[in-house]
Every structure is written in C-alpha cells, then in structure tokens.
C-alpha cells in the first residue's frame, strides 16, 4: 500500500482467486454474504460486521485509507429458495464475485461471474441471470467482468457495444495457452480492437502458467 500512496494511484485491481481455495467445501468457510450495493450505502470499514464481512472490511479500509477505488475478486454465499429452479440442494449459491469500493470505502458495485469453466463449476455456481455491473469514477465510467468473461458476448461485448463502456476492470486467473491465448497479447488485442481501456490483473503463479497483467 505504500507503493500505491507514493505513486498516487487512483484505482487498483486485484487478481481472480487472490484469497480463495480450490474446492467447493474447502472454499465455503472463506465466503461472505455480499449485499446488493443498490440498497442503503454501506461502508464496511466504518461499519464492520465482524467475521461475517472480514474480507469486505479489509478491502473497504484499503480503499478508504489510500483514497482509491478498489476492484477485488472474492467469493460470496447468497441464499436462495427451493422455488428457484437453479438453487443448489443446500439452498446457498456460491458465486465467483467482483466487488468495488470507492475512495471513501463505500461498497458501490458487485458482479457475479457468468462464464465458468469446467473446473470452476465444481465449486462455484453460475448466476441465474446475466448481470451487467457498471460504476462511475471521476476519470470515467467502468464495468467489471472476470477472466474468461472477456471471451463471450455476455456480459462483456454487450457492455462495450450496447452500453458504450470504454473502461474495463478485470480480475483474472488466466492460464497461458499459446499461441492464441497468451494473456498480454489477447488482452492487448481486445483493447485495441474495440478501442477501450482494459485493466487486467492476472493471478501470478508462473510455474502453473498464470501470469501477465497490464493496463491496455
């Protein structure tokens, strides 16, 4: 965080899976309920909810104490009812989730990842409806998506082509798959091809092929 302050950053994006485990049951203890930010404004740093929102409180305080926007990827548990045909048998959705906090630490946006790969589907659920998540900053309007969402029309191309979003904040766990799926080359080409800005924060585990973050 000292580097953030020194360089006067206004927006930081964390990678996908930065604080999570890798199986559904092992993941569950680390998930938190994430409310809809469209409700009453909530500042977790000023009004923490104990261990129920420990990660959200930490992220909120990082944003507030450094006067920056924070985009991070965490996991959420959202209760559902049996009348929801997509509801899991334990009546709890587990979503791969992006959260956004403004420079005051206020929680302003939430996105549930729509496009899960086969490995992710062992421990995360696909949201019943596509969610398009947009937030405004003094330096432009942003949308947030997650990793391989960038490969699909929904939500990414709809955000760019229909909703006129020109700034994309994207946590990622993007594995290098040459020649066409190299993170830096793909994200750079996506930004140039659609004339938008992409802030991509990739998981950095070089031995497993996860690397390549950038601002394009």
UniProtKB/TrEMBL annotation:
<protein>
    <submittedName>
        <fullName>VNN1-like protein</fullName>
    </submittedName>
</protein>
<comment type="similarity">
    <text>Belongs to the carbon-nitrogen hydrolase superfamily. BTD/VNN family.</text>
</comment>
<dbReference type="Pfam" id="PF00795">
    <property type="entry name" value="CN_hydrolase"/>
</dbReference>
<dbReference type="InterPro" id="IPR036526">
    <property type="entry name" value="C-N_Hydrolase_sf"/>
</dbReference>
<dbReference type="InterPro" id="IPR003010">
    <property type="entry name" value="C-N_Hydrolase"/>
</dbReference>
<feature type="domain" description="CN hydrolase">
    <location>
        <begin position="1"/>
        <end position="216"/>
    </location>
</feature>
<dbReference type="InterPro" id="IPR040154">
    <property type="entry name" value="Biotinidase/VNN"/>
</dbReference>
């Amino acid at each position: 965080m000292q580097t953030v302050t020194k360089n006067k950053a206004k927006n930081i994006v964390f990678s996908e899976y930065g604080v999570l485990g890798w199986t559904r049951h092992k993941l569950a203890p680390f998930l938190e309920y994430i409310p809809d930010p469209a409700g009453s404004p909530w500042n977790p740093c000023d009004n923490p909810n104990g261990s129920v929102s420990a990660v959200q409180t930490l992220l909120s305080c990082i944003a507030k104490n450094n006067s920056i926007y924070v985009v991070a990827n965490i996991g959420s548990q959202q209760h559902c009812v049996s009348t929801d045909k997509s509801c899991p048998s334990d009546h709890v959705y587990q979503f791969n989730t992006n959260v956004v906090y403004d420079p005051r630490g206020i929680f302003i946006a939430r996105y549930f990842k729509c496009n899960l790969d086969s490995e992710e589907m062992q421990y995360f659920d696909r949201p019943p409806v596509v969610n398009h998540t947009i937030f405004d900053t003094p330096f432009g309007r942003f949308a947030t998506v997650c990793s391989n969402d960038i490969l699909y029309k929904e939500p990414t191309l709809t955000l760019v082509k229909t909703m006129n979003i020109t700034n994309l904040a994207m946590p990622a766990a993007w594995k290098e798959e040459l020649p066409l799926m190299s993170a830096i080359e793909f994200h750079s080409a996506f930004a140039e091809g659609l004339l938008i800005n992409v802030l991509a924060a990739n998981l950095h585990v070089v031995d497993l092929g996860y690397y390549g973050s950038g601002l394009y």
